[in-house]
Design a protein that fits this description.
Distance between the termini: 107 Å
CATH class of the largest domain: Alpha Beta
Low-confidence stretches: 1-23, 25-52
Strand order of the largest sheet: 2-1-5-4-3-6-7-8
CATH topology of the largest domain: Glutaredoxin
Number of domains: 2
Length: about 230
């Protein structure tokens, strides 16, 4: 093997050095791309935040309550999200329903309960899903008179004539009540109380909504989360 002439050695060294630099530069984009891919993977692996959860189609106890937008008896648009951070009670109502009449005509206990919820910083919304021409659906003037008669306010009486919100909550009777906590989670669904049993003299008064509210305020589990509604 012949030895390389000494005067060629510097040129060879320069060529080898250049090749090494080019190889390093070629590897950099690949390394950067790999790092970006790792960052994207980490973001995807992160759990979704509660406020980023998809809007549920149906009301389910223990899950986020479905949002909605309705107009009240005064013609103002009301959203459930308007009450974020508050305990909200939703009551489906039909002022011509015999059971609703038992609560509102000649009695004021339920109206007082609603006012107490508001005084405590919460809200109590009434929703009427009666379709046009059906029992419980009134024209504006008649509705105003009926609400005044029983001590209710138009601001918290919401109209759901096409039944969209009623279907989301599967509200099929009146009264049918739902209690939502400050985090927007549905904690109770069902009967307002045990009035039918009381009426037959078969039970002492039990107010399921009041019990649910007390548990939520005390940061406890609601004992009876679902009770079959009457009406």
């Amino acid at each position: 093997m012949r030895l390389m002439k000494w005067w060629l050695l510097p040129a060879v060294l320069v060529a080898l050095s250049g090749s090494f630099v080019l190889a390093q530069e070629a590897e950099k984009p690949t390394e950067k791309k790999a790092e970006e891919g790792a960052e994207e993977l980490k973001e995807e692996d992160k759990p979704a935040k509660p406020d980023e959860e998809a809007e549920p189609d149906k009301a389910t106890v223990g899950k986020k309550a479905p949002g909605f937008t309705l107009k009240n008896a005064d013609g103002k648009e009301i959203k459930l999200s308007d009450y974020a951070g508050k305990i909200v009670v939703i009551e489906w109502v039909n002022l011509d329903c015999p059971w609703c009449k038992k609560h509102y005509e000649g009695k004021d206990e339920l109206v007082k309960q609603q006012k107490k919820v508001r005084e405590d910083g919460g809200e109590w919304l009434l929703i009427c899903s009666s379709a046009s021409g059906k029992q419980g659906n009134f024209d504006a003037e008649t509705l105003k008179t009926r609400l005044q008669k029983v001590g209710l306010e138009g601001a918290t009486y919401l109209i759901d004539a096409d039944g969209t919100v009623g279907k989301k909550y599967e509200a099929k009777t009146t009264p049918h009540t739902f209690v939502i906590d400050k985090k927007g989670v549905l904690r109770y669904a069902g009967a307002l109380d045990n009035l039918p049993k009381q009426s037959r003299g078969k039970a002492e008064p039990v107010n399921y909504v009041a019990n649910a509210l007390e548990a939520i305020k005390a940061d406890k589990e609601v004992a009876e989360k679902e009770v079959k509604p009457y009406g």
